[in-house]
């Protein structure tokens, strides 16, 4: 397959990011650049603009539906021989927006072609509260294998059920159940639909997106000029204290609400941090859709983005995650996840979003237990790991977190400790025992964690 990719004629791809800027991130970076000419596109779709491309990719979980003019341009593009790639995740959309699946923008695009993303409400939820089908139940069909897909390369995570039109070719389905990926013809073109966006988002599986993209592209491609790398929209700026927000002009009303919520999250995290150093500047970008992310270093500032289509409750939870990613609380590696989760639950309750807090706690109940001394940061999430601080609060009191934070040195929680010998869990246990008492060591060990007990003397 790589030889076929490198020898292929150029494929011009327009990646529509105007509905969800956090999805489709694999498209602008697919290689080789000689073959894949991609445009990161944030403006309105028109027939004239689409005429310069072979493939149109619309992936994400946003609410902004295409205008009638845009829908007409999309249908005409496919009918004349173009390829439409459409991806969305029903479970993620329903969790993050609290809206019915009929409000998903991708459904407005899918409907004229006979496809539909169906609700995942009847499926089981994972530890993140996303409903859908677990990866272990997904199987490639014979058509999927001929298409060029390989199961080990596909970053599907909790896809929902997909309705497909008569005559469509199912590429992947739930074992014994609903389709989750399919391709169908329309006029001289075709549509590839996936009930998840992971394959188009994950930079960890670049060849997966490349294989599917080249297989879906028109076989006989007309010559086009190389398109621009990006087609952006104007941005505006708002500042409030340490928060500097940027947002596209069409998102001005929602940006004001997000800034109001961000101010409340900032104040509560700063209260919990006490004397610990917070980022001097929090750069917060409001983008279309339902996604979030951050980019940060040990020094200031903190750069993050959050989707405009999140519900208020989901916005607060996401902002907590983003801000605590630059944690002043002395929890790193495998301890970062339970700290972020505890802060999220605490602040959701504090700001009156008890329903979402309860649902997220319920999603991480049960499941296997693991020794956190032997869990690495990027392993698959478990409910036990996320519940750690909640269980500590039940055992040692609801002010245990505040006492723990006060016990951690202000600038360097590892000061005077032999870092090569002691693990992140050892140092966490040491500071917890200083805050909650020596019994914290025994409690952690009783939970199945391996702890090297550091003597409870003043460091150094």
Structure, described:
35% of the residues lie in helices and 17% in strands. The chain is of the alpha/beta class and 460 residues long. It folds into two domains: 230 residues, Rossmann fold (3-Layer(aba) Sandwich), CATH 3.40.50; 174 residues, Neutral Protease Domain 2 (Neutral Protease, domain 2, Orthogonal Bundle). The model has no long low-confidence stretch (mean pLDDT 88).
Record keyword descriptors for this entry.
460 residues, Neutral Protease, domain 2, alpha/beta, Rossmann fold, 16 helices
Q: Quick one: CATH class of the largest domain? A: Alpha Beta
Structural class: alpha/beta
Helicity range of the residues?
25-40%
**Taking strands numbered 1, 2, ... along the chain, how are they ordered across the largest sheet?**
6-8-9-10-4-3-1-2-11
Gyration radius from CA atoms, angstroms: 24 Å
For the record, the count of structural domains works out to 2
Q: Total number of helical segments?
A: 16
* Percent of residues in beta strands: 15-25%
Overall pLDDT score: 88
E-strand count: 16
């Amino acid at each position: 397959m790589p030889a076929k990719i490198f020898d292929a004629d150029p494929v011009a791809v327009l990646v529509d990011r105007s509905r969800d800027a956090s999805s489709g991130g694999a498209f602008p970076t697919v290689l080789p650049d000689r073959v894949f000419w991609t445009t990161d596109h944030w403006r309105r779709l028109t027939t004239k603009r689409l005429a310069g491309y072979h493939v149109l990719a619309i992936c994400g979980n946003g609410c902004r539906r295409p205008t009638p003019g845009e829908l007409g341009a999309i249908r005409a593009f496919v009918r004349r021989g173009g390829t439409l790639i459409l991806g969305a995740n029903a479970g993620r959309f329903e969790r993050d927006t609290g809206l019915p699946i009929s409000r998903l923008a991708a459904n407005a695009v899918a409907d004229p072609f006979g496809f539909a993303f169906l609700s995942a409400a009847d499926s089981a939820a994972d530890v993140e509260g996303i409903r859908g089908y677990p990866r272990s139940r997904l199987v490639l069909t014979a058509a999927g294998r001929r298409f060029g897909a390989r199961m080990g390369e596909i970053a599907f995570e909790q896809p929902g059920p997909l309705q497909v039109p008569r005559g469509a070719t199912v590429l992947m389905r739930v074992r014994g159940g609903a389709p989750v990926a399919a391709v169908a013809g329309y006029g001289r073109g075709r549509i590839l639909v996936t009930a998840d966006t992971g394959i188009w988002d994950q930079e960890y599986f670049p060849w997966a997106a490349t294989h599917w993209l080249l297989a879906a592209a028109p076989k006989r491609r007309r010559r086009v000029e190389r398109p621009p790398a990006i087609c952006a929209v104007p941005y505006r700026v708002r500042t409030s204290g340490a928060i500097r927000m940027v947002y596209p002009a069409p998102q001005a009303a929602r940006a004001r609400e997000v800034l109001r919520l961000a101010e409340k999250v900032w104040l509560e995290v700063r209260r919990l941090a006490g004397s610990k150093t917070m980022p001097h500047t929090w750069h917060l970008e409001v983008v279309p859709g339902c996604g979030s992310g951050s980019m940060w270093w040990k020094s200031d500032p903190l750069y993050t983005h959050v989707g405009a289509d999140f519900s208020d409750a989901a916005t607060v939870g996401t902002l907590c995650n983003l801000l605590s990613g630059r944690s002043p609380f002395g929890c790193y590696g495998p301890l970062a996840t339970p700290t972020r989760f505890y802060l999220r639950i605490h602040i959701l309750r504090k700001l009156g979003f008890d329903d979402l807090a309860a649902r997220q706690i319920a999603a991480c109940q049960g499941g296997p237990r693991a020794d956190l001394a032997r869990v690495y940061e990027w392993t698959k999430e478990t409910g036990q790991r996320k519940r750690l601080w909640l269980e500590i609060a039940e055992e040692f009191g609801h002010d245990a977190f505040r006492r723990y934070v006060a016990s951690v040195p202000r600038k360097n929680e590892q000061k005077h400790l032999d870092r090569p010998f002691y693990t992140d869990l050892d140092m966490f246990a040491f500071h917890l025992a200083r805050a909650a008492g020596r019994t914290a060591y025994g409690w952690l060990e009783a939970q199945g964690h391996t702890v090297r007990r550091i003597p409870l003397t003043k460091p150094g």
